[in-house]
Design a protein that fits this description.
Strand content: under 5%
Oligomer: single chain
Distance between the termini: 31 Å
Radius of gyration: 17 Å
Order of helices and strands: HHHHHHHHHH
Number of strands: 0
Helix content: over 70%
């Protein structure tokens, strides 16, 4: 857990730690909110003051990882370096992510990951270029982000045989040429 967290953040991390413990013995779809709060000595009311459901908790925890590892893209890190950090974190938390990525619920981590990285890259590129994306680039970015999430899930569920560095390099090299040009022009690769 990070240092200097406010009370609300500490509560959220305690709930995240509890669901991670639950995931060691149950699939996500079988874990109840009651299991989560029992595991950390909190109440259901506390849970629902912080999250709408268990998937919201999973997605919040994932956001902490992605936003931290991607915050420096274009500042002092490339996309590949930030992806590497993301994969190192996923590998460190492999039980959590293996279980979270198994779920196909309507607000599952897979869809949340796509929405998060799609929005992040869109905002980053439009900010760097100081203009909106063309339809062609928007299409390439969506295809790339969907493929990235699919390959990330496949990597996690097949035992993470590639190192985080190899996985980051593979995803960077898989970027379509038209999108690579936009990322290069924006100083992101």
């Amino acid at each position: 857990m990070a240092v200097n967290l406010n009370k609300n953040e500490k509560t959220k991390y305690r709930l995240a730690d509890s669901i991670k413990e639950c995931m060691k013995t149950k699939p996500v779809d079988k874990i109840t909110v009651q299991n989560i709060v029992d595991g950390c000595g909190m109440t259901r009311q506390t849970f629902y003051r912080n999250f709408k459901d268990k998937y919201d908790l999973i997605n919040w925890y994932f956001d902490k990882l992605v936003l931290e590892s991607f915050a420096q893209i274009g500042v002092d890190k490339t996309v590949c370096q930030s992806l590497c950090e993301k994969f190192k974190f996923i590998k460190k938390e492999k039980v959590f992510f293996a279980e979270a990525f198994r779920s196909d619920d309507h607000n599952s981590l897979k869809e949340h990951d796509f929405e998060l990285i799609m929005g992040f890259y869109t905002d980053l590129i439009t900010h760097k270029k100081q203009g909106s994306l063309s339809d062609d680039i928007q299409f390439l970015l969506e295809m790339y982000c969907r493929g990235s999430v699919y390959m990330t899930v496949k990597w996690v569920l097949s035992g993470m045989k590639q190192s985080p560095e190899e996985m980051a390099q593979s995803l960077t090299e898989a970027m379509p040429p038209g999108l690579t040009a936009v990322f290069t022009d924006a100083g992101l690769v």
